[in-house]
Amino acid sequence: MKLIGSITEQYYRAQLIEFNRSLFHDHSMKRLLGIIQQAFPEMKTAYILGITPDQGEDVYTILMNNDFIVYIELDRYNLETEPMIETKPVKDYKRGLSRIGQIQLAVAMDLAERN
Predict the structure, then answer these.
(1) Cα–Cα distance, 10 to 52 (Å, whole number)
(2) DSSP-derived secondary structure for 29-63
(3) Which residues of the chain have pLDDT under 70?
(4) Phi, psi of 48 (to 5 degrees)
(5) What is residue 62's predicted lDDT score, i.e. its pLDDT?
(6) What is d(CA 6, CA 110) in angstroms, rounded to the nearest whole number?
(7) What's residue 1's pLDDT?
(8) What pLDDT is recorded for position 26?
(9) 81: Cβ contacts below 8 Å, ≥ 6 apart
(10) If phi over 0 gives left and psi between -120 and 50 gives alpha, with beta otherwise, what is residue 113?
(11) Using alpha carbons only, what angle is made at residue 87 by residues 111 and 57, rounded to the nearest 5 degrees?
């Protein structure tokens, strides 16, 4: 998808940059960052595409190194519980996305390329 600098793209760019800054600098994201670094020591870039709160867990959808999508499920209350981690190729993730989701992914991939 070609980026054109639309307002939607600008919105997602700002959101993705803020999530990225939070992941690497916010104390509340320290646990998630540690899990990512342990599971993917080759990580160069990570952009959080979404956070889905569930009953007792949070599921993070992350673009990793512009290569694949990672789903990480973290228990909100029991910090000792092992996280569930699933990976998916970007092309498979992209297949079912709405137009807005495709824009968000394209902006995240652009940011990752620039890093």
Answers:
(1) 22
(2) GHHHHHHHHHH-TT---EEEEEEEE-SSEEEEEEE
(3) none
(4) -75, 115
(5) 98
(6) 14
(7) 76
(8) 96
(9) 75
(10) alpha
(11) 95
